[in-house]
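Sample pair:
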Amino acid sequence: MKKDIVEVRFRVAVKAMIVHDKKILLMKRAEDDVQSPGIWEIPGGRLELGEDPILGLVREIREETGLYIRPSVPLSVRHFVRADDQIITMIVFFSKAIGGDLIGLSEEHTEFDWVDLDECKGKINPFFYKEVDVLRKLNLHNLIDL
């Protein structure tokens, strides 16, 4: 019996609010990116089908930044539809950079910046204001160790 090919229109994505020396890592998307080109965001991406969210987050951050992170608590779970009509459930984790703050950019981003939380809203895309507010409210960015 022949099986039909099914198009997957739903994906899980993971992002990280990465803290190092009480600063948050922001990344600028490439101008030729099909999804939100040129915006300042937090790193992360879509999981492979069946991939564990924590392991997928560590993989995505390593691929996009070269950093090793220690994921901690989820800050939010968001649901939205991308411009290409893909339905996304996104989990944003509070994470700590371990082993330094040297960044190696992938082709997905053109710039990065370590920004004080108080200056974050002046740079990051408004979509992520919710996570900035949660981080500030819980005072997590001031924690030394997770």
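The CA atoms of residues 12 and 89 lie 5 Å apart.
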